[in-house]
């Protein structure tokens, strides 16, 4: 038998460790063996499973799915991390949020118009005409942004379809403007000039305006926005 005096030096550290585990760390460890022979999960004081591991580290998942370690959580707060909104690039047309305009954005906006899910940043970058919905018109403008044919976007566009010169009316002046349309145009003017809604401003759009004004032909409709 080991003399009591030999066991004494170990008593205090064991008691301190027990106190830390049960109070300082906020955990009550359930050490009952499970059916598979393993040790049960650590539990919080209210009896609910806790995400802390026995080594004192902790995992948490932020809004972007990233696993955060205990140091990050301690400095920022677990609730703040979980509730933090995604960080947007702020670049109009950057639908996939990679910081640049390219064909990947064109693909992504087509997915959104088909009903794919998206986060707030993707939706904001894809809503080029600022209507609150992602439509084919937004897709056309995103493509034009990627190809350098338009400037601006993600702002209100109040021009009526066909009003390519922006004077508030649909007349032959718009047909003339469309015929000599600038290489790089304002995004809203571009939408209004694309009178047949195919995503490209061309002579066919000018002909549609002329036919409507002079002969009462089909009214320009542009792409749905």
Give a nutshell description of this structure.
The chain has nine helices and six strands, in the order αββββαααααβαβαα. It has 225 residues and is mainly alpha-helical.
Describe the 3D structure.
With 225 residues, the protein is mainly alpha-helical. The chain folds into three domains: 1-50, no CATH class; 55-84, no CATH class; 103-215, no CATH class. Helices cover 40% and strands 5% of the residues. The protein has nine helices and six strands. The protein has helices at 4-24, 70-76, 78-83, 103-113, 120-126, 136-146, 172-179, 187-193, 203-215; strands spanning 28-29, 42-43, 60-61, 67-68, 150-151, 185-186. The strands form three sheets. The chain has a two-stranded antiparallel ribbon. α7 links the parallel β5 (150-151) and β6. α4 (103-113) packs antiparallel against α6 (136-146). The longest helix is centred in the N-terminal third of the chain and has 21 residues, at 4-24. It starts with a helix and ends in a 10-residue tail after the last helix. Mean pLDDT is 77; it is low at 4-35, 37-45 and 48-69.
């Amino acid at each position: 038998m080991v003399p009591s005096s030999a066991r004494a030096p170990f008593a205090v550290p064991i008691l301190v460790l027990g106190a830390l585990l049960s109070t300082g760390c906020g955990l009550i460890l359930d050490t009952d063996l499970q059916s598979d022979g393993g040790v049960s999960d650590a539990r919080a004081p209210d009896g609910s499973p806790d995400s802390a591991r026995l080594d004192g580290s902790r995992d948490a998942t932020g809004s972007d799915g990233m696993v955060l370690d205990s140091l990050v959580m301690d400095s920022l707060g677990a609730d703040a991390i979980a509730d933090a909104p995604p960080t947007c690039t702020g670049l109009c047309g950057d639908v996939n949020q990679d910081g640049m305009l390219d064909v990947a954005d064109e693909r992504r906006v087509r997915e959104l118009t088909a009903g794919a899910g998206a986060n707030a940043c993707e939706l904001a970058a894809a809503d080029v005409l600022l209507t609150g919905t992602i439509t084919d018109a937004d897709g056309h403008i995103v493509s034009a942004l990627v190809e350098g044919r338009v400037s601006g976007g993600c702002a209100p566009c109040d021009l009526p379809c066909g009003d390519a010169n922006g004077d508030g009316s649909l007349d032959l002046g718009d047909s003339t403007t469309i015929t000599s349309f600038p290489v790089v145009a304002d995004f809203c003017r571009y939408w209004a000039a694309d009178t047949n809604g195919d995503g490209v401003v061309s002579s066919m759009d000018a002909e549609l305006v002329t036919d409507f004004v002079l002969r009462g032909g089909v009214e320009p409709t542009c792409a749905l926005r």
